[in-house]
Specification:
Alpha-Beta Plaits; four-stranded antiparallel beta sheet; eight-stranded antiparallel beta sheet; Multidrug efflux transporter AcrB transmembrane fold; Gyrase A, domain 2; alpha+beta
């Protein structure tokens, strides 16, 4: 009775925890709705807005120069949105993200402008008829770099009780000294000090008294608070300490981001439902427990994202959905072990305990290798790919927790409540040994043909119409890509494309314009050379005026050649680093270099097959290519480790090479159900993304589906048999 109460309490606590996390996700806590999914920070690809990466023109900017420039850029960005972020990338790049801006072109024009802010005495200023101001630069009192801050404020006169809008200025130590000396000189005759930005007068307040504490106040000329804020912003912006050039920019319409969220959530919901159905039908009671644990994982994931203030990007959403499929893997490994123990005649209680114990090493090793891939992605990827890496890593940790802790607690609770009949768990029937080793040459031959086909297709692409081995996207080629969504009444035909091509050619001054349809939408994708701010603004205006396109439906990315070359290098380096790290880890865990070598060779095989898919399908190869390849690498090595773990167990220290083929065949056969079922559940989630997701997600999902199939094939048919072949040759040489 005591155990039953404990079991019932366990289930109630888990359900209550899911309900609490679910309520927090849907509604939030308190008046501020803390923890609500609505408060999760969205990346620009979901929220819409502008993302710009600047690079310092100076070769070796100092840390101080970079820090001061970032501070000024942050002040500029906050004029457009308080949710803006400005971060340093590497030694000389600054990335600025501004969500939800109304006029993207204005932001792109003004944000990186070097500018010049000066405080000048009226004695040294000449005001022209057109309003421009001329002055001797050598007689400037102080410059914008010596302004610490400027904020708009509203004060109340103590006598009249009238409210007045003012601007409070704070100078740094150097500026305080200079400004103090100037006000001492100007105060007796109440002379004016002009505040001039890029030759234009922002304000010219009269000096009422000397100001020696570095805190000045401008008053008397602001009709509204907005007027005061405009001047404060102009002063804050000041002059940038460094000259910057644009290296990369992206503009995303808010509606496009909303569509991406809705379609991805729909794909995730349908996929989740199908996975739950599959688990319950195939694994019965353990499948139900796993489904509850999966629901716990999902709501816990959203709470953690909120709590850690992680910025959720579109690849990040894809990562969460992918993780649902991969989270099943640990449960499948455990349930297969439980079924095997039940088949040996052991009790349900003992089988549950042994199932979890024997599955632990494979689960931990497999997830650590996937974490390695996520870590490399985070190091080498850009903003959106970092988002994918973050959600992937968090998802791996949470899925391990829900599988190893929550699922176990649920199964043990159900058992003590009386659900202890073997029929609720299922028994792993005896399997006939499948001769994988005997057929290894057929597998090797098939893989060889596929790898040869990959090489041939890459050569064909290089010498053919594409001109490159793969259909490189903007990320890897540089240039500017526009996605223009026309109204539903506008028919996209050859004539329309010709008009659009003409506009792009004339504006860019180049005939290098490639136009393609975006499947499933009334959208054209246009690739051209790298464009300037003025050219982009001109293009946007022409698209709006000539085709009545709404500006919110115009999205573009722009990347310099230097950045695109860096991204290509990062893609190659990322896969190499991940493969080396995984090789070292497997070598360390299995104490056998042949395990590690065969696993890495199989990874290279998988990468080649996925490259074949990219080459044949002509899917654009961009930044998500890195995420796709490393996800496949992590997934494939995970499946391989499960088989290697079983080979290690079945070897049990035996040195007799004559039974190696039987051990390998037995190990692959015993884990075959796991390999198939995990591939099915992961494939379901990615398949739904491929069907329902937006184009950028679809381009990520289709190669990933191929990678899942290929990873399942290589782990079952290649890695074990390759290990056997290498082990036999090594044993002969040793003999």
């Amino acid at each position: 009775m005591k155990n039953k109460r404990k079991g019932l309490l366990t289930i109630i606590v888990i359900i209550a925890a899911i309900a609490f996390c679910g309520y927090t996700t849907l509604v939030g806590l308190g008046a501020a709705h803390k923890g609500s999914a609505q408060n999760i920070r969205l990346g620009l690809d979901l929220a819409g807005g502008v993302s710009i990466t600047y690079e310092a023109v100076k070769d070796n900017p100092t840390d101080t120069e970079m820090k001061d420039t970032i501070q000024k850029m942050q002040q500029r960005a906050e004029v457009y949105s308080t949710e803006s972020s400005v971060v340093q990338q590497g030694d000389k790049r600054i990335e600025v993200d501004i969500p939800g801006v109304a006029d993207a072109e204005e932001v792109l024009k003004s944000l990186g402008k070097e500018g010049s802010l000066d405080f000048v005495s009226e004695d040294d200023v000449t005001v022209e008829k057109d309003g421009t101001v001329t002055y001797d630069k050598s007689k400037v009192i102080c410059s914008g770099s010596e302004v610490k801050n400027a904020v708009a404020n509203t004060i109340q006169d103590e006598t009249t009780k009238n409210k007045e809008n003012v601007v409070d200025i704070t100078f740094n130590k150097k500026g305080t000294k200079k400004f103090g000396a100037a006000t001492q000189k100007a105060a007796p005759s109440k002379k004016r000090i002009y505040i001039i930005y890029d030759g234009k007068e922002l304000s010219s307040p009269a000096v009422q008294s000397e100001i020696l504490n570095g805190k000045a106040q401008i008053s008397g000329s602001f009709k509204t608070f907005a007027d005061a804020e405009e001047l404060a912003a102009g002063i804050r912006i000041g002059a940038l300490p460094l000259e910057l050039k644009e290296a990369q920019s992206q503009v995303v319409g808010a509606q496009l981001g909303l569509d991406a969220i809705q379609t991805s959530l729909l794909a995730g919901a349908i996929g989740f439902g199908l996975v739950v159905l599959f688990m319950v039908v195939f694994y019965r009671l353990p499948g139900l427990a796993a489904s509850i644990a999966l629901l716990f994982y999902l709501v816990l994931m959203l709470v953690v994202l909120n709590g850690l203030n992680v910025t959720l990007t579109l690849p990040g959403v894809a990562g969460i959905i992918l993780n649902i499929g991969m989270a099943v893997d640990a449960n499948v490994i455990i349930f297969t072990r439980i079924k095997e123990e039940l088949a040996k005649g052991k009790s349900v209680q003992t089988s549950i305990k042994l199932g979890f114990d024997k599955a632990l090493s494979a689960i931990v090793d497999g997830n650590i290798t996937t974490l390695i891939a996520a870590f490399v992605l985070y190091l080498k990827g850009s903003g959106t790919i970092k988002g994918f890496a973050t959600t992937l890593a968090i998802g791996i940790i949470l899925s391990m927790f829900t599988a190893l802790v929550i699922t176990k607690l649920l199964l043990e609770a159900m058992y003590v409540l009386g659900v202890d009949d073997v029929k609720y768990f299922g028994v792993e029937g005896a399997r006939k040994r499948i001769p994988f080793v005997a057929n290894r040459m057929k597998f090797f031959a098939l893989s060889g043909v596929l790898i040869l086909a990959c090489i041939v297709m890459l050569v064909v692409n290089k010498t053919g119409r594409i001109g490159y081995i793969l259909n490189y996207g903007l990320d890897f080629l540089g240039g500017t890509t526009y996605n223009v969504t026309f109204d539903s009444g506008e028919k996209i035909d050859a004539d329309l494309k010709k008009q659009v091509e003409s506009i792009f050619s004339k504006t860019s001054g180049s005939n290098d314009v490639v136009i393609s349809d975006v499947a499933g939408s009334n959208t054209l994708s246009v690739k051209t050379v790298e464009l300037t701010d003025d050219q982009r603004a001109d293009l946007t205006n022409q698209l709006v005026s000539n085709f009545k396109v709404q500006e919110k439906n115009i999205q573009y990315d722009s990347i310099s050649a230097a950045v695109s070359d860096e991204m290509k290098t990062n893609a190659i380096v990322s896969v190499i680093i991940a493969a080396i790290c995984m090789l070292l880890y497997i070598w360390f865990r299995f104490k056998d270099v042949i395990f590690a070598s065969s696993a890495v060779l199989a990874l290279l095989h998988d990468c080649a097959i996925v490259l074949l898919v990219y080459a044949v399908s002509k899917i654009s190869v961009g930044n998500t290519f890195i995420a796709c390849m490393l996800t496949i690498v992590g997934y494939s090595i995970n499946a391989t480790i499960v088989i290697f773990d079983r080979i290690r167990e079945n070897l049990n220290g035996r040195k007799d090479s004559s039974v190696l083929d039987q051990i390998v065949d037995d190990s692959i056969t015993q884990t075959l159900t796991r390999s198939i079922n995990t591939s099915i559940t992961t494939f379901i989630m990615i398949f739904m993304l491929a069907i329902l997701g937006v184009d950028s997600v679809r381009d990520f999902a289709i190669p990933l589906m191929a990678g899942i199939i290929c990873g399942a094939y290589s782990s079952v048919c290649i890695t074990g048999t390759l290990w056997y072949t290498m082990k036999r040759k090594f044993a002969k040489k040793k003999a």
